[in-house]
Amino acid sequence: MLEVLEGIGVNTTKDNKSVVEKSDLIVIAVKPNIVSCVLKEVAPVVITEKHLFVSIAAGITIRSIELNLPPGTHVVRVMPNTPALVQAGASVVASGSNAVPEDLVVVQAMLRTVGICDECPEYLLDAVTGVSGSGPAYAFAAIEALSDGGVKMGLPRELSTKLAAQTLLGAAKMVLETGKHPGQLKDEVCSPAGTTISAMHVLEQNGFRGLWMDAVEAATLRAKELGSINQ
């Protein structure tokens, strides 16, 4: 990986202290169970009025980060998601006790280069994890299931998957760009006695909405558990 980065002109090093000394903004992107070790290692070279630490480590609270760094260090915590890899990410930021508005401006500007970015209090980040952090997996499963349905009805796999993915993409764009409630958009597709309302009936009979809500709840609760384990 370092060789790849060097190949595109990125300065690399295996020395964490060197990274901090030569940077203004430091992204904490290591495994949650070693965050405290890394922070304690670099703490001696942190300059509180210069450095901004941005954490994407799942379940690691702002307080635990601040406790491992010099008093007054600026910290911002982020919950991103994987569609950032294709510039379609959804990120939410929460500011630490020493962060200033300018810190959030910098972090949000950075994250908006790969998608959307909003702000919320830290106590809501576990719920954000349940919706958008884990959400891409739910969407992938939905695309796969929709594609399977098409294959069952005779469509070639490649075409069925393409149609399923584009359908979810298009539906998402309609929600974001029209400002209409998803329920209203759903109703606009459901003609009286038509194919779509028949399909919706089957989904409702099998607890479709409840399953998605339960999934968000399960991911949120697990995020809280992981946070308590890694403090």
From TrEMBL:
<feature type="domain" description="Pyrroline-5-carboxylate reductase catalytic N-terminal">
    <location>
        <begin position="6"/>
        <end position="59"/>
    </location>
</feature>
<dbReference type="Pfam" id="PF03807">
    <property type="entry name" value="F420_oxidored"/>
</dbReference>
<comment type="similarity">
    <text>Belongs to the pyrroline-5-carboxylate reductase family.</text>
</comment>
<feature type="binding site">
    <location>
        <begin position="29"/>
        <end position="32"/>
    </location>
    <ligand>
        <name>NADP(+)</name>
    </ligand>
</feature>
<dbReference type="InterPro" id="IPR036291">
    <property type="entry name" value="NAD(P)-bd_dom_sf"/>
</dbReference>
<dbReference type="Pfam" id="PF14748">
    <property type="entry name" value="P5CR_dimer"/>
</dbReference>
<keyword id="KW-0641">Proline biosynthesis</keyword>
<feature type="domain" description="Pyrroline-5-carboxylate reductase dimerisation">
    <location>
        <begin position="122"/>
        <end position="226"/>
    </location>
</feature>
<keyword id="KW-0560">Oxidoreductase</keyword>
<dbReference type="InterPro" id="IPR000304">
    <property type="entry name" value="Pyrroline-COOH_reductase"/>
</dbReference>
<feature type="binding site">
    <location>
        <position position="16"/>
    </location>
    <ligand>
        <name>NADPH</name>
    </ligand>
</feature>
<comment type="pathway">
    <text>Amino-acid biosynthesis; L-proline biosynthesis; L-proline from L-glutamate 5-semialdehyde: step 1/1.</text>
</comment>
<keyword id="KW-0028">Amino-acid biosynthesis</keyword>
<dbReference type="GO" id="GO:0004735">
    <property type="term" value="F:pyrroline-5-carboxylate reductase activity"/>
</dbReference>
<dbReference type="InterPro" id="IPR028939">
    <property type="entry name" value="P5C_Rdtase_cat_N"/>
</dbReference>
<dbReference type="GO" id="GO:0055129">
    <property type="term" value="P:L-proline biosynthetic process"/>
</dbReference>
<dbReference type="InterPro" id="IPR008927">
    <property type="entry name" value="6-PGluconate_DH-like_C_sf"/>
</dbReference>
<keyword id="KW-0521">NADP</keyword>
<dbReference type="InterPro" id="IPR029036">
    <property type="entry name" value="P5CR_dimer"/>
</dbReference>
<protein>
    <recommendedName>
        <fullName>pyrroline-5-carboxylate reductase</fullName>
        <ecNumber>1.5.1.2</ecNumber>
    </recommendedName>
</protein>
